[in-house]
Amino acid sequence: MDTETTTANTGILAAFPDHWQRRHLLDIESLSAEELHVILRLAEEFKQYMNQSREKLTLLKGKTCANIFFEDSTRTRNSFSLAARRLGADTVEFSASSSSVSKGETIIDTAKTIEAMNVDVMVVRHRTPGTPHMLSENVGCALINAGDGPHEHPTQGLLDVLTIRQQRGTLEGLTVAMVGDINHSR
To answer: What sign has the CA pseudo-torsion 25, 27, 37, 44?
Structure first.
C-alpha cells in the first residue's frame, strides 16, 4: 500500500467516531442527528478522495460484501458493488432469478446460506416492505437496506440529503417537498 492510500485511509477514519454502535442501516428515521452528520461527513470525505484519486482504499480489506437483490436494479446494485470494491472489500453478487429462491427457498434460508459463506455485510433489496428489518433479526452480519418496495431506500435518502447540503450549505431551517408518485416511490 502506498503512502497516499495510507494517508487517505487515516484521514477518512478520523471522521468516524470511536463510539459508533450501529450495526445495520435499515432506515433513516432511527438515525440520530449525530449519526446522520457522521455519515454525511464520511460521504464527503470519500467523495473528495475519489475525485482526487482512482486509487482503491483498504478500509474494508479482508471484508466481504454480499449484494442480495431480489428485485432488479441497475444504479443501486452497481453503486454498492463498486463502492465496496473501491473501499477494498470483496463482493458476492446474488440474483434471485438464478438462485434456489426460484425453487422455493425462503428469503431467510437464502440469507443464512450466504451468511454462512462468512460475509461481513449484506446489502438487501426486496420488493416487500420490511424485508431488510426481518432479515436483520435473522442474520448476524451487518445489513444495509437498498430499497424495500415502496417503503424505504435509506441510502438514496442519505444521498439526497448530502446533495441538498452541498447545494444549500446547510440543512438547518429547510423544508423539503416530495413531488411525484409518492404511493409508488421510496
So the answer is: positive
Straight-line distance from the first to the last Cα atom of the chain, in angstroms, rounded to the nearest whole number: 40
* Listed residue (83, 58, 46, 54) closest to 6, CA to CA: 58
Say which DSSP state 103 is in: G
- Report which of residues 7 and 169 the model is more confident about: 169
Q: Are 65 and 119 in contact (CB under 8 A)?
A: yes
DSSP for residue 169: S
Active site amino acids = 75-76, 103, 125, 153
Q: 130-151 pLDDT, tens per residue?
A: 999 999 999 999 999 999 988 8
Cα–Cα separations (whole angstroms), residue 99 to 48, 68, 134, 148 = 38, 11, 20, 19
